[in-house]
């Protein structure tokens, strides 16, 4: 057998230059009150409002991904932790901080609530935003 008959053909791939440009633009949270949730995250992360309507608010900065908040009339917050799996979180933000206690105090003053269950409070804290979405603050990031 010669080398030509044992080689597998190279897979055909679309060159990156020919592929459509796709970029990460934003994460959007469902909630009952987009303006209130945008206020919380805007103050917590020092992000300005780039769009505001009755049912949607977007925070962000030029050239960077943003955070969106969409009104859902029958919104029900996720449960965390949720041992039944019926309404548990599906995603959450990890916010990097220098000092867990200071960050927790600041976020609670803005409207967050500390979750009852804290799996590893020396490494990260689980908080719930004003709409009930869990998020973490951590010194690991």
UniProtKB/TrEMBL annotation:
Q: What SUPFAM superfamilies does the record point to?
A: Glyoxalase/Bleomycin resistance protein/Dihydroxybiphenyl dioxygenase
Its domain of life reads Bacteria
Stretches assigned to the VOC domain: 23-140
Signal peptide bounds: none
Which CDD domains does this one have? Answer: VOC
Q: Which Pfam families match?
A: Glyoxalase_6
Q: What is this protein called?
A: VOC family protein
